[in-house]
């Protein structure tokens, strides 16, 4: 049996079992569904279903490797793209280790340019274009690990904080999911934002990602008076509040190296010796000229750093796309065999995808692992492996096969 | 949102004829569009024509009092829906756009003078989720739901309108009287443009058609001037600002463009008059080129499909934040928008010909 057939067979068993159920998203019959088909290896798009059982039997019949539905609501979801009749879309955020620099991606991620005459490659995040030939297609090897999850988790935490406190969404309206790979989806179905166009959504993106904050615009960098730093007035609302709290936290805990790292060159000792006094003068009295030699440029550097720290690193393309397809809840991810699953936003800190998103809980399989780092799944630790034949629980075997790191041994 | 029974007087409805109450007032008067020969209806028709005419000429809606006689409310109010019928009958997108803008500007000049309470009542008439700010902090007069806010800032380019530069607390944006008046102007314009976008039109009475025809020839004259004021018909690549040159070059060489880069290039080319098919061509060399998708995106930005919004390129400051602004030159320092650059350069390079 080929590895592909093995995975197909396991997916088929999973979708045939009585425990499999897709929760129907709001506006179910207005959504477009799409499926990546195992056998044909093509995307079947523009499907619409009148009810969840019909969707269930389609999945059982075709056994797709991935199931998606549109964040959009359409009059006719089965129609061609320009004839669907867009009526609205959920607000969707994607936070994925593919796009965020993590401590671990230089260790377990690599890419090779697909251009055969080039073949250039490297470690870490895949570039937008090949630095040698400019090609945009790559063969990517990646791995989901605890560091990836915790890094993206921290971004979700910041995002959720803004959605709750700034945008005023109730915790019950903010749906948080593990994506099935190495990141999270956050989805809001609230009616008041449904009809927002791409431009309106861009404003939300810019807000959560800290883009276009006027404190840093060039205009303010050329102070009118000599003591131009005074225009840098921070209030207690919106992003100002985030900057203010962030600056306070940063300065109180900063080391010499922290300041150097963000580009502060002079008078570091003066800053560190007078932290409290500086914070009082600057943040409370708006007297940014409190310390001699610590000028506007220094404050810009510190504030710029805080903006970076406070911003939620979302994949901006996803949120502005009002036709985006998103993975369906409780379905399998074709690259991991893990489930996309929902969890209460209040459990963000404790949620462990490597035990809760495991779909295949029974049996074992023998696989030849080409290479894999040490990993954790369903309470067990495996690896690292290097050209090794080994018998593993089904979930671990499928993860390795789906990530292109192992083949079934028959 | 609580439903208060705010009453608008007939003189208020005359001032703000886009309010919901207009329908009731017009019904009360008993307007019969078939009978334009009655003296009452002639007055209404004249005033309606005046509204559209003034919009074409100087983006106003004309003067309500002529020869020191103020037009009565029961002429002024119905003249608005009749003016819409006239604008529709012209089937001229220039006239429709100008008229929507003129009504919105006119309304704005009144909004600025309104009391807080009346402004609130008007905003709620539009279905806005808006309240007076009961607290003293943050200092502002109104609090508006952020979604209502976002719907009305699409065309406002100043950085102060960006959501991130607003006090956003618990889903509410804090605004002063000025801000609300400006956002209401956008709302009026948006609503009117939508009404004027009606596709299925009934046959219009003779009188209406005659007026529409006259207005069309007036618009033709005016349009000639406006086009001279704005862009020449021929797309002049040598007048592209440096950022667009870089994006255009990257696109034609098949290099990858960021989402913002793609959007900027597409909306810029459309704005300077390149037909959508030609814009789609520009992206053809991409390895991930997908003809149908690209055409869809281009047409979406052009406003032919999808939401119906016509997008303009982002301002220089936005392009700077996204790293799209490159190789800026002397002219860049004097402008704040890539289209302003193009306009400046084409006008200075253009001989006096070029009219259509
Ligand atoms: Zn290459
Ligand atoms: Zn990792």
Assembly level:
heterodimer
In the CATH hierarchy, what is the architecture of the largest domain in chain A at level 2? Answer: Alpha-Beta Complex
Class of secondary structure makeup of chain B:
mainly alpha
pLDDT < 50 stretches of chain A: 217-230
Helix content of chain A: 25-40%
Number of helices of chain B: 16
Largest sheet of chain A: 4 strands, antiparallel
Identify the CATH homologous superfamily of the largest domain in chain A.
DNA primase, PRIM domain
Count structural domains of chain A. Answer: 4
Task: Describe the global form of chain A.
Answer: globular
Q: How helical, in percent, are the residues of chain B?
A: 55-70%
What is the CA-CA span between the terminal residues of chain B? 52 Å
Instruction: State the strand order across the main sheet of chain A.
Output: 2-1-3-12
The overall average pLDDT of chain A, rounded, is 90
Task: Give the largest chain-chain interface (CB within 8 Å).
Answer: A-B, 41 and 46 residues
Task: Give the C-alpha Rg of chain B.
Answer: 23 Å
CATH fold call of the largest domain in chain A: DNA primase, PRIM domain
Kindly report the spatial arrangement of strands forming the biggest sheet of chain B.
3-4-6-5
Would you spell out the secondary-structure blueprint of this structure?
The complex is a heterodimer of chains A (410) and B (356).
Chain A: H1 3-16, E1 33-37, E2 43-47, H2 52-62, E3 64-70, E4 72-74, E5 86-89, E6 91-96, H3 105-108, E7 110-113, E8 121-123, E9 138-141, H4 146-166, E10 174-178, E11 183-188, H5 198-208, H6 218-221, H7 238-253, H8 256-261, H9 268-273, H10 275-284, H11 296-310, H12 316-320, E12 325-327, E13 341-343, H13 353-356, E14 364-372, E15 375-377, E16 380-382, E17 385-393, H14 394-402, E18 406-408
Antiparallel strand pairs in A: 1-2, 1-3, 3-12, 4-5, 6-11, 7-8, 7-9, 10-11, 10-13, 14-17, 14-18, 15-16
Helix pairs in contact in A: 7-10, 7-11
Chain B: H1 10-15, H2 21-29, H3 39-58, E1 65-66, E2 69-70, H4 73-90, H5 93-111, H6 116-125, E3 130-132, E4 142-145, H7 146-151, E5 168-169, E6 172-175, H8 177-195, H9 206-229, H10 242-252, H11 259-271, H12 276-282, H13 291-302, H14 316-321, H15 330-334, H16 338-349
Helix pairs in contact in B: 3-4, 3-5, 3-9, 4-9, 5-8, 10-11, 12-13
Residues 113, 115, 118, 120, 130, 132-133, 135 of chain A line the site of one zinc ion.
